[in-house]
Amino acid sequence: MVLMGMTVVACSRVELAYENADxxxxxxxxxxxxxxxxxxxxxxxxxxxxxxxxxQNRLPVIxxxxxxxDQLLGKSNPDRATVNQLFIxxxxxxxxxxxxxTPLATALLRELNHEQIDTLAATLEEGRNTYVERLTQGxxxxxxxxxxxxxxxxxxDQQDTLTQCVAEMPDVTEEWQDWRRQTERTLVAMLRDNxxxxxxxxxxxxWMLEDAARSPVLQDYRQTSxxxxxxxxxxxxxxxxxxxxxxxxxxxxRYRGDLETVAAK
Length: 265
Hints:
Radius of gyration: 20 Å
Order of helices and strands: HHHHHHHHHHHHH
């Protein structure tokens, strides 16, 4: 799960995607938000500035993290504390990257006109419904498929471990839908009322990153999820065969090599 969580981009060549992140990101986000060309240009400029910052300040941390993951995979009997620490470090990396782009994202949201805000509201609703469908259907098989993408074929015992881990997750679907629906409504209302940058930025930051922005039930769920997947990941990695370790390390090496190339430019 650490490996899957830190997949930098869904592309066979990290370097290619990273070097073109400004215009690819502007194109994808532009379609998502129905931006006009001038807005896309400003977004691309903002992403280009962040790309330079990321290369200098975030890539070294990511590369160091991937080195630690590689060392973990090289051990036949990794200790639980090391796995836990990697989860903590991985979450910190994700948080720092999300925090970095929150001001740019907020400024972009505040530029949306009424029609674009309508599109955003509809897109958020569609995304929420799609996520719930994925949450309630085929979760066990998706986890197995993603694990096999990194490890090769998993054994029956490993499949049982993954299936049991998914089964232990509490069902908070209704609570999550209620929270997400209200969060979307609040954001849309803020944008329609032309709320100040700082207010929207704080709201988006809380939505994306802060446990306290959720209900007590969802806060408990997040903590349970963290603890469960740390334990399950340790169990899974401890039982890997030599071939599975090699498979995972080879795939990881491709990401590390591309990122090191980017960092050296």
